[in-house]
What we know:
Helix content: 25-40%
Strand content: 15-25%
Distance between the termini: 20 Å
CATH superfamily of the domain at 263-423: Adenylosuccinate Synthetase, subunit A, domain 3
CATH class of the domain at 263-423: Alpha Beta
Largest sheet: 10 strands, mixed
CATH architecture of the domain at 263-423: Alpha-Beta Complex
Amino acid sequence: xxxxxxxxxxxxxxxxxxxxxxxxxxxxxxxxxxxxxxxxxxxxxxxxxxxxxxxxxxxxxxxxxxxxxxxxxxxxxxxxxxxxxxxxxxxxxxxxxxxxxxxxxxxxxxxxxxxxxxxxxxxxxxxxxxxxxxxxxxxxxxxxxxxxxxxxxxxxxxxxxxxxxxxxxxxxxxxxxxxxxxxxxxxxxxxxxxxxxxxxxxxxxxxxxxxxxxxxxxxxxxxxxxxxxxxxxxxxxxxxxxxxxxxxxxxxxxxxxxxxxxxxxxxxxxxxxxxxxxxxxxxxxxxxxxxxxxxxxxxxxxxxxxxxxxxxxxxxxxxxxxxxxxxxxxxxxxxxxxxxxxxxxxxxxxxxxxxxxxxxxxxxxxxxxxxxxxxxxxxxxxxxxxxxxxxxxxxxxxxxxxxxxxxxxxxxxxxxxxxxxxx
Length: 423
């Protein structure tokens, strides 16, 4: 099964993956880097993971970091330490990293910052974690991969050559902070190499499938941040849609049995770019505070708005989503009225599909349906039948518009604040 975000990320995939991991043997991540933030709350204790799949919180699960990821070594070591401090060990082959995964180097962060500054008002609004520059190096065929750590002489040569070009680029961007210590970088990379367990992830997953193992696959960000199908250029630098799972892990599409889409009961996004249903007013602020809508990685406030069925249908189509998990229903509990955007209006034309260009998307006017709020807490609800009828009506409409069923509903941060349709 693949778990994919249907909006601009931050849908609550971390919690859903954590819950589903209980029945999985392997949890694999296929793209992104430490720009992601998956938050899981267990018995009131919050754990935020940025690179390691949240399945690591289950002691019998093996976690896999695929070749489609870009990995920051120092941040990953900090994450491992965080887990160990919470009594969670990665020893015994519990964390496997692809030989082919690319590394985020210290200079990638500076390039990220310099390029954003040079873009001025046209900046993308990146997390500044060096994700984009690392992917640029990957496709420019000058990146450094995990497997390169095994050959010290070759690594030193690649690093030296790359640093020369980085200095020139930073100078061209009027960015004079380029004091790199190649020796220090090398030493830290070799220490990292001694800690991790690298392997051929494609072979590992193929053998697991052959042996009937249950594999859960997760991505970072969401569909609307996909480099091809998102609000380009205000997107991430990889394919966060399900196609990225095949190339990011080395598995064939025929091995995928189902796709679960995670959607928030309203909509949020971080950073720049068009957002048709954004509530840039007091109600938007109210949603942000009620939902704790601040980035798990950067702490940036998220922009909030009504549920957008146009982007949800877009996500269902491009990902082949079978079922939905709806999160943060409880954030809407005290609203007298909730709205769903069913289509967009551009001049005299009504459309119900996503425009490919941001200039058009920024001009659309959302067409809303208004639904009465349920005005009661859902935080302690345990079954679908216990949900207020108006909340059920809201779900039914979302299901009708997306043409797929809702199987999971989250009504709070903790693991036990989750409703499964089959129970």
